[in-house]
Predict the structure of Trehalose-6-phosphate synthase.
Amino acid sequence: MSRLVVVSNRVTLPQKSGDAPAGGLAVALQAALEERGGIWMGWSGKSSGSKEPQPLDMRTHGNITYALTDLTKTDVEEYYHGFANRVLWPICHYRLDLAEYGRKEMAGYFRVNRFFAQRLAPLIKEDDVIWVHDYHLIPLAAELREMGLKNKIGFFLHIPWPPADVLFAMPVHEQIMRGLSQYDLVGFQTEHDLDNFGGGLVREGIGERLEGNKFSTYGRTFKGGYYSIAIETEEFARFAKKAYNNAIVRKARQSVEGRDLIIGVDRLDYSKGITQRIDAFDKFITLNPAYQNKVTYLQITPKSRSEVPEYEQMQRTVAEQAGRVNGSVGTVDWVPIRYVNRSVARPVLAGLYRLARIGLVTPLRDGMNLVAKEYLAAQDPEDPGVLVLSRFAGAARELTGALLVNPYDIEGTAHAIARGLTMSLDERKQRWEKMMEHLKVYDINRWCDDFLKDLASA
Ligand SMILES: O=P(O)(O)OC[C@H]1O[C@H](O[C@H]2O[C@H](CO)[C@@H](O)[C@H](O)[C@H]2O)[C@H](O)[C@@H](O)[C@@H]1O
Ligand SMILES: O=c1ccn([C@@H]2O[C@H](COP(=O)(O)OP(=O)(O)O)[C@@H](O)[C@H]2O)c(=O)[nH]1
């Protein structure tokens, strides 16, 4: 079996004993790397003022070597905050209005990808299989090919791929498409994303979609596919059962005082539809006054990418909005929305999911959304809660037993909350069992195996 080399912007180092366990993606990638032996390369998360690159920080644990690189402050500004998160992220989430295209940032993005390639190339052996993750690193294969590497290289995009007209609004879309054509396998989260990609190639007249999801463009033929990322379902379910008795979860249980709990968990990101969701909760209370003082909505929202202006501004908007709704519908003994603006450790999160009668997952657009899957896996099989899920999350393609909503339809989401809270136990069980069966088969290991199998045969 060939050695595996994983490259991603962020790298999850093995957890110290006693730490909260890492998410499913890290666990699955670590397992695949451990089995085959391999390297996981990425950004250390640190930036330095010095122009001279420090040597790679190499750490070996078992069969895996982690290779971490620092970036300069300018690199982080232009590549991560700039092009990746102010151009590619909004464009891929269909938000043309928020894309801030600048040549300096675009140049920084390509420069950092070349830098990654220069650092990675000396570590690569002839028959290594390379797996690159996400929108930060699209041009990496092109850089490696230019250096003469002939290895199998696969790419997985964790975020959506937009339809042609949205993509074409990005001035360098052709360079990005050309970058993708240098991989042997390009994986998307859903069939819809894959179709958007094929549609873009054909509309631009730069490529063809061939039989068997193959694409031909820029003189290369490569494979496309869709692989919906998942979680470690059975482990997460066991973990949530245990977490229900975690001290913090117990306190949370006492503090809701028998009210129904509604939970939302999202990075503070405009793609997650948090403001529309708060409006929907407000509407729900207004339309159903009998629920006053009978329900608590807990919104856990860690800060994210705060250096990017659109994110910084959102921090104020959401905090003000939650305060406004609490002020208008709350009473002296009831705070309807508990807004937590910090990250919560996974053991606590798992227990809170299990405590909640409704999981409210209403992004305006999302590659997959692992929170939706974690919420389901955490439920008590004898008394499962209801998932209210946006039809625009990748997860909606699989989780058809959820109450699917259009997050732009505030009243529709408010009705779904009311329906979730009054749903019979029989219906809740029926819907939940159907989705859990699916999640047990299509778990994170299956996702990893499917991608690597297709890459091997690409
Ligand atoms: O690294 P950050 O800038 O702090 O952002 C965190 C991650 O956000 C994105 O997550 C996506 O991947 C999930 C797993 O496939 C998927 O469920 C979700 O829908 C996506 O939004 C991003 O793609 C990651 O690279 C970031 O590390
Ligand atoms: O306070 C928090 C909030 C989120 N998460 C985790 O962050 C991930 C979020 O993944 P998702 O696919 O839902 O969205 P993303 O943030 O990757 O866009 C999930 O595994 C959550 O359990 C966490 O550990 N603590």
The chain has 16 helices and 16 strands. The radius of gyration is 22 Å.
